[in-house]
């Protein structure tokens, strides 16, 4: 599940850190992982049935919840075949794990319980045998995307009238409606058409599964042919290296 989730986040262009290493029993989590947690805007915690068995996972969670208080980090929990109340109150398999931790990690049990209680109280996704996992992953990625800042743009927001024109253009796009929408921006050369289109792209492209900004189409097609533009477009949309043999093939 985590592998599919990670791949979906990466495909959306979200820089995601997933720790793939396994620490030998008793070792502490490394500085690279601590740094990754501290520098992240959002922590996505997947609570599995055996999550609490791992002192390493619990150390990670305690550090994440600490970052919530000190850095304002956002935590998005996923309860994967686990009842949130078991996490919150350390019942079921979580209770069994903690009875073991009481004997082996007495000095950490208090902070771990506090972290689990806090995380278990957060609203998140509950995935069980009735869930459609692919749909859940899509919803998670969509939520993460919406909570991250929009793409940065070189557009100077101090340009006179840019904000008003940008809002007007975004309203015409009707992003939440179904279907395909084509917007034409017409005006004299040097009037700011490309600047406006680039600003809109930077602000809204993260909402889509795929996106592409093609510029200077007339010049580029005259130089290299439409096939090269088709290849660029298809490669970015399909996230694969696409080669086009002819303009007709590219269209199809």
TrEMBL record:
GO biological process entries: defense response; signal transduction
GO molecular function, one term: ADP binding
SUPFAM superfamilies, alphabetized: P-loop containing nucleoside triphosphate hydrolases, Toll/Interleukin receptor TIR domain
Pfam families named among the record's database cross-references: NB-ARC, TIR
Domain named TIR: residues: 1-148
Keyword NAD part of the UniProt annotation: yes
Matches recorded under Gene3D superfamilies: P-loop containing nucleotide triphosphate hydrolases (3.40.50.300), Toll/interleukin-1 receptor homology (TIR) domain (3.40.50.10140)
Keywords carried by this UniProt record: NAD
Alphabetical list of SMART domains matching this protein: TIR
Protein name: TIR-NBS-LRR resistance protein RES10
Organism in which the protein naturally occurs: Helianthus annuus (Common sunflower)
């Amino acid at each position: 599940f985590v592998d599919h989730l990670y791949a979906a986040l990466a495909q959306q262009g979200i820089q995601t850190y997933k720790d793939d290493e396994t620490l030998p029993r008793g070792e502490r989590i490394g500085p690279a992982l601590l740094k990754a947690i501290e520098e992240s805007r959002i922590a996505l915690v997947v609570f599995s049935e055996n999550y609490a068995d791992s002192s390493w996972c619990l150390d990670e969670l305690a550090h994440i919840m600490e970052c919530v208080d000190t850095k304002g980090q956002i935590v998005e929990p996923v309860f994967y075949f686990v009842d949130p109340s078991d996490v919150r109150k350390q019942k079921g398999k979580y209770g069994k794990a903690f009875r073991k931790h009481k004997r082996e990690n007495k000095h950490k049990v208090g902070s771990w319980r506090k972290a689990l209680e806090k995380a278990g109280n957060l609203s998140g996704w509950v995935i069980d045998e009735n869930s459609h996992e692919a749909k859940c992953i899509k919803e998670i990625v969509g939520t993460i995307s919406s909570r991250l800042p929009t793409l940065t743009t070189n557009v100077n927001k101090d340009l006179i009238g840019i904000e008003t024109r940008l809002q007007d253009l975004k309203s015409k796009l009707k992003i939440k409606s179904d279907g395909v929408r084509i917007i034409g921006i017409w005006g004299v050369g040097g009037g700011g058409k490309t600047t406006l289109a680039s600003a809109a792209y930077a602000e809204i492209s993260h909402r889509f599964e795929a996106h592409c900004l093609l510029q200077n189409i007339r010049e580029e097609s005259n130089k290299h042919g439409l096939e090269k533009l088709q290849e660029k477009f298809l490669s970015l949309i399909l996230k694969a290296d696409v080669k086009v043999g002819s303009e007709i093939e590219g269209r199809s």
